[in-house]
């Protein structure tokens, strides 16, 4: 069997990262992902098939495909594999992995239904390479507090704020609170009012998530609900 090296092509040691499977668990890696990753160290199933279950690995394994040259323990590869496994989990299984990290962060998990929490992770669209990262990227679904800690709205000037108040007021008055309708309305409003879409969509994103990068802002808004979005935008004086 081939020797396993660090990414720097030197003999694997503690300086290359975690040394216990429990450390990987505590960082949010799935057991099946670690198994998948380790199976690829010195072996290839062929046909660019890098993501597989344990049962699939058993069925695919062929000693003739064991590689003789040293393999590299690449954390970037492990992160990719773990993210792909997370994406493929049914919603409630994904929730079971992420929930302990939300609780560790002190987020109000018990204030929300299991259905809402599971759907929030669906809306997250696979962001986060580990369950721990997914918990951090989705904190705004559980509470407004981290949004306020990340974003203060101070970069929005008087004129832009006036535009945002008009836009958000009309957005919040839509007859149905559905992402496709919100997006269609925003595009039409942007065109008819000669305003760049990013100049109204980005403050909306920041006001409800505290992040410049997130899943689709309208999908997030739908999941949070009209009343919660109104409350958050009102905090920043982005709506009357």
Please explain how this structure is put together.
- The chain has 3 domains: 4-85, Glutamyl-trna Synthetase, Domain 2 (Glutamyl-tRNA Synthetase, domain 2); 89-143, Orthogonal Bundle (Helicase, Ruva Protein, domain 3); 150-235, Arc Repressor Mutant, subunit A (Orthogonal Bundle).
- The protein is elongated, with a radius of gyration of 22 Å.
- The chain has 13 helices and 2 strands, in the order βαααβαααααααααα.
- It has a two-stranded parallel sheet with strand order 1-2.
- With 240 residues, it is mainly alpha-helical.
- Helix 9 packs across helix 11 (197-209) and helix 10 packs across helix 12.
- The model has no long low-confidence stretch (mean pLDDT 93).
- It has helices at 21-26, 31-39, 54-60, 75-88, 91-104, 114-123, 131-137, 145-150, 158-172, 179-192, 197-209, 217-224, 226-235, and strands at 4-6, 71-73.
What's the structural blueprint in terms of helices and strands?
Elements: E1 4-6, H1 21-26, H2 31-39, H3 54-60, E2 71-73, H4 75-88, H5 91-104, H6 114-123, H7 131-137, H8 145-150, H9 158-172, H10 179-192, H11 197-209, H12 217-224, H13 226-235
Parallel strand pairs: 1-2
How would you summarize this macromolecular structure in one to three sentences?
The chain is mainly alpha-helical. The chain has three domains: 4-85, Glutamyl-tRNA Synthetase, domain 2 (Orthogonal Bundle), CATH 1.10.1160.10; 89-143, Helicase, Ruva Protein, domain 3; 150-235, Orthogonal Bundle (Arc Repressor Mutant, subunit A), CATH 1.10.10. It is built from 13 helices and two strands, in the order βαααβαααααααααα.
């Amino acid at each position: 069997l081939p020797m396993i090296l660090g990414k720097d092509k030197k003999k694997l040691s503690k300086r290359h990262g975690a040394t216990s499977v429990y450390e990987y668990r505590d960082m949010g890696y799935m057991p099946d992902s670690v198994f998948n990753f380790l199976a690829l160290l010195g072996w290839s199933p062929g046909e660019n098939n890098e993501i597989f279950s344990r049962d699939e690995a058993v069925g695919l394994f062929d000693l003739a495909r064991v590689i003789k040259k040293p393999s590299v323990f690449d954390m970037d590869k492990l992160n990719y594999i773990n993210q792909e496994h997370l994406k493929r989990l049914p919603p409630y299984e994904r929730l079971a992995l992420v929930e302990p990290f939300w609780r560790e962060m002190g987020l109000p998990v018990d204030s929300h239904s299991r259905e809402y929490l599971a759907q929030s992770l669906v809306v997250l669209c696979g962001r986060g390479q580990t369950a721990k990262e997914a918990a951090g990227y989705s904190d705004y679904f559980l509470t407004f507090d981290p949004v306020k800690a990340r974003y203060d709205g101070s970069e929005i000037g008087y004129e832009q704020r006036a535009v945002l108040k008009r836009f958000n007021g009309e957005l919040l008055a839509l007859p149905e609170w559905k992402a496709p309708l919100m997006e269609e309305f925003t595009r039409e409003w942007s065109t008819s009012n000669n305003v760049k879409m990013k100049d109204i969509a980005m403050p909306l994103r920041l006001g409800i998530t505290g992040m410049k990068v997130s899943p689709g802002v309208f999908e997030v808004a739908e999941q949070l609900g009209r009343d919660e979005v109104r409350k958050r935008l009102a905090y920043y004086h982005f709506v009357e």
